[in-house]
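Now for a concrete sample entry.
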Amino acid sequence: MPPTDHEAILLEVQRFQQQFVQCHQFLADNTHRLAELLREAESRGILLQDAFTLADVGYWLQNIDWQTKFLGVVLAFIQEPSRKTLWPLINAWVAERTRERI
C-alpha cells in the first residue's frame, strides 16, 4: 500500500531532521579541527596568513557563518511556525539562490 501524503510528508520531514543533525555535526567537528590545525600551524611557526591563503579559510568561514544564520531562521520557524517566521526563511532561501547565480 503506498504511503499517504501525510505519511510521505512526515517521512520527508524526518529525513530533513536527520540531515540537519548530520550537517550540524559536520560543521561542529570540522570547525573544531580547523581551529586545531590553525593553532598547531601557529605553534610551529607557520604564518597564519599563509595557512589562510592556502585553505581559502575566509570563504569557508563565511559559508559556515551563513549556514549558522540560516539554521537559526529554520529553527525559529520550527519552534513557532507562522507567517512571521516563514517569511525570513523564504527570504533567506531566495537570497541564497540569487547569490549562487551571481
